[in-house]
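Problem 3 from the worked examples.
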Amino acid sequence: MTSTALASLWQAEDESLQKFMNMFGWIVVQIRNLNPEVELQSMLLTLRLGKFTDSLWKKPPSSMDKLHERAKGYI
């Protein structure tokens, strides 16, 4: 699998944040040598708009670990 798989992934309107993050994570672990910056940018672009994404765009996380930590407050 390649990073292009992330480009076709989108969080559906009725899909929970937790479910989407689990699916995203499952795909990420299958991509060899994925650049962490590409992973983070892909996550930011594939989340549906809402309070969580608003908070991420106002203060972007510096890593996926920080994004996951912030997501806990929205799950």
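Problem 4, a separate protein:
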Amino acid sequence: MSERILISTWLDIEDVERIQAVSSSVEVMYAPELLNKPRFPGDHGAEMPEVSLSQEDEARWLSLLGRATILFDIDRRYADQIPYLAPNTRWIQSTSSGIGQSVNKRRYPERMPNTIITTASGVHAIPLAEFAAMAMLMHSRQALHMIREQSNRRWERFSGTDLSGRTVLIVGLGSVGSEVAKVSKALGMRVLGIRRNPHQSTGDAVESIHSLVSLPDLLPLADFLVLAAPDTAETKGMIGMKEFALLPKGAVLINIGRGSLIDELALITSLTSGHLGGAYLDVFAKEPLPEANPLWPLPNVLVNAHSASTSDRENSRIVDLFCNNLHRYLNNEPLLNVLDPIKGY
């Protein structure tokens, strides 16, 4: 039986053709008129405007799901029912890196025991690392102050600082954290790291690598704390009042991991007390961030709508990964980025 790939998210036709070009033995099924429409390039989010399907179109889409042996992304409209609606699927390629919680919540490993799930780990490393670098540069050069001064048409000289010789502590040295380390070293910074397996190499950008138990010892050294860890039982709520108090006065938090890593009330308290010098946040405990959340108006906070990872190059990079994995799948070779449901990533 030939493999039938159903593309469950919006792609440019050129990327669809690249997938089809991998092998003439696969059938690529793509019906963009039945998919949710993206708001911006690389949009695969749950907040995408939903296409209202007629009864006939829904029957057509469900038929495609039933025929598919490979899914390129998970259709969020039917995510809970995928094990039932796509019983022939043996491989799902996600467009997201952090799908562990969602997959486990829907019990995919138990309901689809013969289906491999691969993530988009690594695809978002460059834009996320650039966001972290931007945040560190913005803070050292007081960009938020500049913006306020310009909006008030006020000309008054001031002094910033520089990053050379400053210490950045990166929690989570996967593909994203490792990229942050490379960029930080290029800026002349001292780089310390924490990862689940401290003996696993991440290149020469990191001065020393530690396990999570060393966090209390490392926090007092950090001018910048970058969170790039996944949402797991081990990392949930890992940064609270105790951890913020261990940071040097004026230290800066950058969160490009998950909102669940932080005790948000403790973060707000540390910011408003003046102990924490600033926070540059891409992710939050509740998204979208409620309008009444105290983080919005704080002068030393940058709120980003979970968009640090998005790029107009994202789909092309995901398709590169998928085509590589498709070659491997067709040749019975190990796939890249296989999700470990126990670890959650």
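Solution to problem 4. The mean pLDDT is 96. The radius of gyration is 22 Å.
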